[in-house]
Amino acid sequence: MYKVTKEIHFCYGHRLLDYEGRCAHPHGHNGKIEIELGAETLDGRGMVYDFGDIKEIIHKWVDHQLDHRMILRKGDPLVKALKDLGEPYFEMEENPTAESLARLVYDYAKSKKLPINKVIFWETTSSSAAYSGC
Ligand SMILES: [Zn+2]
Question: How many domains does the chain have?
Fold first, then answer.
């Protein structure tokens, strides 16, 4: 199988609910998303998928939806506060852990019909979580 990987770097804030530890408080990360696509055969251009197209689809979405936003679980009281202040945020069903953010990106890539194998979400340079759907 052929595989290609694209990295996307972005900044985000979050906090975790029902959690005791430093991540229970609002704070930020320089996150890195590694997107791995795979295919048994190459297309007419000799590619699994064009890096530029991955950037156009995924990077653009990350820029608009996640970059420089507070990522919060639905029901977090901070959502209302940020909304009232007109500040950017992104709401999700799960606690915004590296694991659930990896799944979020994976599901988005899948919804855009990318031949996605795996998403690795780096919360820091030494801590990552992966989601592969199987
Ligand atoms: Zn954190």
Answer: 1
